[in-house]
């Protein structure tokens, strides 16, 4: 059984606990810290969006179509569907001579409540551009357009069905996952992600190594190393795009810049690269709780970067308040996580 990583307190009493596993690994695969079963395959979901965006840059598509820092950051994003996110995704499609109909991620309402309420009040309807994955999918379409150009094919026809595992775009994305993690993703257990692309179950150990490689370039091809560096720089330059207002990933990367690249995934997954330390991080909260994943990631970043940053402390020791604003409890790293990070 995996150890408890996060305690939830009501007053001073533990009310709930979140078990999980954590891998901190360098680019060679050497383990810095391990808690729980780091070899059990898990679906990383959106935590690997940077890995999925590597072909967009390595292929030359991002350069060919003049993608900006904001547009590349959005390609790595699980955004809140705010107007800036929507406009940026639409801008990528405009550069391609396409529109929202090219996206195959599905329609999703914004997760940012004030934006959602404003749209409803104005009688507006959500589109695929509001989908939290619209930036990633715009990047996929961009890659498809370059492939179509190189093949002398019509872009719209070539891009159609790009979410299918056998499509040339997804084959490139899957190859990037395999190359970075060292796992043959095509032989891994496969499911379908919320945005309709394939998702592959991979061990935390391998995911952490992949992010260490993306932070250092070691163990990657020249093309993937350059792409990873470009994407990290883009996210550091435009961190709002990778998440949004009051979101963990945006706030932390606004504060730390290129010292940390971090990305949440559904069902309590987090992956991160810490380039100055040459380390990658992958963690999974067993019950899928996002707030526990954020607390664990904050504790890891705080310990590894040896910072007393108030923002990270506010997440790793999150105060819980009731509807009257009263402090009623907190999240905190459990003893197993605290010991592991102290000894790491």
Q: Secondary-structure blueprint of this entry?
A:
Layout: E1 4-10, E2 13-26, E3 31-35, E4 41-42, H1 49-58, H2 61-64, H3 69-75, H4 83-95, H5 113-121, H6 134-151, H7 155-159, H8 168-181, E5 190-192, E6 198-200, E7 202-203, H9 204-216, H10 222-237, H11 248-256, E8 261-265, E9 269-274, E10 279-285, H12 290-304, H13 310-316, E11 319-321, E12 327-333, H14 335-343
Antiparallel strand pairs: 1-2, 1-12, 2-3, 2-10, 4-7, 5-6, 8-9, 9-10, 11-12
Helix pairs in contact: 1-6, 1-8, 1-10, 3-6, 3-10, 4-6, 8-9, 9-10, 12-13, 12-14
How would you summarize what this structure contains?
This protein has 14 helices and twelve strands.
- First-residue to last-residue Cα separation: 21 Å
How many structural domains in the coordinates?
1
Count of DSSP H/I helices: 14
Report low-confidence residues grouped into runs of 5 or more. Answer: none
What is the N-to-C succession of helices and strands? EEEEHHHHHHHHEEEHHHEEEHHEEH
Radius of gyration: 20 Å
As a percent range, the share of helical residues equals 40-55%
Q: Beta-strand level of the residues, as a percent range?
A: 15-25%
CATH architecture classification: 3-Layer(aba) Sandwich
| Global morphology | globular
What is the fold named in CATH at topology level? Beta-lactamase
Which structural class matches the secondary elements?
alpha+beta
* CATH hierarchy, class: Alpha Beta
* Number of E-state strands: 12
Largest sheet: 8 strands, antiparallel
Overall pLDDT = 97
């Amino acid at each position: 059984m995996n150890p408890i990583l996060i305690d939830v307190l009501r007053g001073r009493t533990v009310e709930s606990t979140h078990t999980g596993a954590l891998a901190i690994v360098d680019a060679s695969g050497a383990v810095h810290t391990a808690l729980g079963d780091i070899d059990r395959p898990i679906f990383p979901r959106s935590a690997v969006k940077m890995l999925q965006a590597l072909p967009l840059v390595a292929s030359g598509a991002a350069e060919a179509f003049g993608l900006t820092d904001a547009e590349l950051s959005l390609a790595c994003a699980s955004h809140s569907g705010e107007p800036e996110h929507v406009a940026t995704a639409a801008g990528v499609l405009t550069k391609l001579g396409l529109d929202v109909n090219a996206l195959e991620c599905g329609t999703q309402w914004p997760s940012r409540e004030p934006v959602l309420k404003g749209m409803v009040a104005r009688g507006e309807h959500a589109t695929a551009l509001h989908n939290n994955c619209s930036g990633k999918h715009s990047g996929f379409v961009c890659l498809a357009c370059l492939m179509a150009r190189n093949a002398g094919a019509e872009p719209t026809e070539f891009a159609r069905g790009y979410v299918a595992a056998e499509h040339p775009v997804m084959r490139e994305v899957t190859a990037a996952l395999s190359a970075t993690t060292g796992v043959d993703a095509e032989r891994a257990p496969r499911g379908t992600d919320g945005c309709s692309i394939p998702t592959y179950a991979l061990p935390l150990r391998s995911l952490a190594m992949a992010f260490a490689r993306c932070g250092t370039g070691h163990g990657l091809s020249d093309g993937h190393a350059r792409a990873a560096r470009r994407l990290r720089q883009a996210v550091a330059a435009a961190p709002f795009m990778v998440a949004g207002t009051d979101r963990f990933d945006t706030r932390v990367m606004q504060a730390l810049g290129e010292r940390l690249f971090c990305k949440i995934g559904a069902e309590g997954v987090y992956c991160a690269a810490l380039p100055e330390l040459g380390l990658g991080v992958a963690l999974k909260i067993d019950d899928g709780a996002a707030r526990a994943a954020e607390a664990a990631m904050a504790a890891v970043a705080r310990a590894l970067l040896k910072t007393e940053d108030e923002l990270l402390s506010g997440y790793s020791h999150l105060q819980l308040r009731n509807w009257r604003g009263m402090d009623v409890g907190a999240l905190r790293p459990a003893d197993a996580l605290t010991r592991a990070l102290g000894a790491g």
